[in-house]
Amino acid sequence: MDEHRDQPSRRQRRKDARPSEITAAALRLFHERGFAATKLDDVAAAAGVTKGTLYLYFPSKEALFKAVVQESVIPNIDRLAQAAASSTEPPLGKLALVLRLLAQGLNESDGCISKLMLAEAGNFPELAQFYVDEVVHRLHDVVRGILSEGIATQSFRNIDLVHTPRLIMAPLLLANMWRNTYGSFDRYPVDPAHYAELQIAMLQHGLLPSPQEPRHD
Amino acid sequence: MDEHRDQPSRRQRRKDARPSEITAAALRLFHERGFAATKLDDVAAAAGVTKGTLYLYFPSKEALFKAVVQESVIPNIDRLAQAAASSTEPPLGKLALVLRLLAQGLNESDGCISKLMLAEAGNFPELAQFYVDEVVHRLHDVVRGILSEGIATQSFRNIDLVHTPRLIMAPLLLANMWRNTYGSFDRYPVDPAHYAELQIAMLQHGLLPSPQEPRHD
DNA sequence: GTTTAATAACTGACCAGTCAGTCATTAAGT
DNA sequence: ACTTAATGACTGACTGGTCAGTTATTAAAC
Predict the structure, then answer these.
(1) For a pLDDT cut of 70, what percent of chain B falls above it?
(2) Which of A12, A23, A28, B44 is the most exposed place for a label (fewest CB within 10 A)?
(3) Which of A202, A148, A203, A157 is nearest to B216 (CA)?
């Protein structure tokens, strides 16, 4: 019986493809269960290899974790900062652009990292420091730049430049964690893109009815 | 030599005080390190007992975790709902009241739970379901009631009643998790009460300059 | 035939959970 | 009051299972 022939052959050698497959599997499981509760045997199985193979590419479980974070975190920030810088819209439009891009970035690849880092920061202080400096503060700085410009041109009122970036991005970030975590338990599905639109409207009008023109499109 | 006399005596019998001391210690450590990464020996030490004692009061580590969550979660919701119901303020004032109470509740006792549940929901589905139903949705319902009233009296524009509660509370919740997690790494201290005020102002005005009266107190 | 990616059996440290024993406290006996 | 028996809260050494990390072996690739 050669029933081992139907799958294209186990034990392939694919040195270049492995690392990203492994980190992808690890990200999913770390996010789902937490770092400590995730077994490397499970990560390996999810990546279609065995545990020994992990150690060909990553020297330890902790190193794998760091690789996961750094790999998933680098990309979208630059894209976002660049989009904001090159946009010629007025401040509010620029802000809307950033929020929509953020929602999109969270939606695809890895809005998982924010929750994962939050949960594990206590166990990995240096990594947490890196994350705060390289990701969060850079993101805040983008928004802060827009706000600052808006205040200068009197498009915005004179808001708190230190904390308002967090205030503005919090709903999107939390909505995303929410969806990734409680999605299956919740009555209403949560959609980051929808939250982006709600937040944009809120930034524009607040809760109050628009005094000049009650629009109805 | 009676040098054993200076500490009031180890090995006291305090059957009634133990459980809350244990859950308090457990909450701190679970929140700091995560459930799986927390050793019961450490919880016991932090509570001033030994591991064996834990098992006199809680049948398993998982049972301890559930006790921690349920104990920390029950109180503040009712207080908040009641305050909102008995307030005679206009909708925006009522909303401000709720946000301030929420910030206060997060600040003292246990704003830890929200992060802890977020991190462990995947490993404790029934508990997550309980938390979503009994805590989060009830909180949202309070806010939803206020919004609904505001729309009816035309104090508010016609906002999305399903999602806006989350949108409004997200900044406070996230700011709190932030402070509990990255507080020591962050440049600027995060204060929930301050975020409550920022958020109230944002709900009132949005980002835009107030068209009728540019106030400056 | 040589190289090396991949495997799987193995090891040892760690930790949740157990239990026989200890001692602070209570209360009965005098 | 003073002694002593009974109680049960508390301890800490122990165990069995689990899992990160290792290594001897296998087989794919060239």
Answers:
(1) 90
(2) A12
(3) A157
DSSP A53: H
Chain CA centroid to CA A82, Å? 17
Average pLDDT of chain A to the nearest whole number: 89
Question: According to CATH, where is 1.10.357.10 located in chain A?
Answer: 66-205
CB of A41 under 7 A from strand D? yes
The CATH 1.10.10.60 portion of chain A extends over 14-58
Q: What is the DSSP string of A141-174?
A: HHHHHHHHHHHHTTSS----TTTHHHHHHHHHHH
Q: Assign a CATH topology to domain B14-58.
A: Arc Repressor Mutant, subunit A (1.10.10)
Using CA atoms, how far apart are residues B39 and B79, in angstroms rounded to an integer? 34
Convert the pLDDT of each residue in A184-196 to its tens digit.
888 888 999 999 9
| DSSP code of residue B210 | P
**B72-205 carries CATH number 1.10.3720.10:** no
Q: How far is the CA of A11 from the C1' of C3 (A)?
A: 16
Residue B50 beta carbon within 7 A of nucleic strand D: yes
> Is the domain A66-205 a CATH 2.40.50.140 member?
no
Contact assignment for B175 to A157 by CB distance below 8 Å:
no
Cα–Cα dist A80/A105, whole Å: 9
CA–C1' distance A98–D30 (Å)? 50
Give yes or no for residue A56 having a pLDDT over 50: yes
Proximity of residue A66 CB to strand D below 7 A: no
Closest Cβ–Cβ partner in A120, A157, A209 for B154: A209
Dmax over CA atoms of chain A, in Å, equals 80
Q: Note the pLDDT of residue A211.
A: 57
Q: What is the pLDDT of residue B174?
A: 95
* Best mutation target, B147, B155, B185, to test chain A (most A CBs within 10 A): B185
Alpha carbons A181 and A201: distance in angstroms, whole number: 26
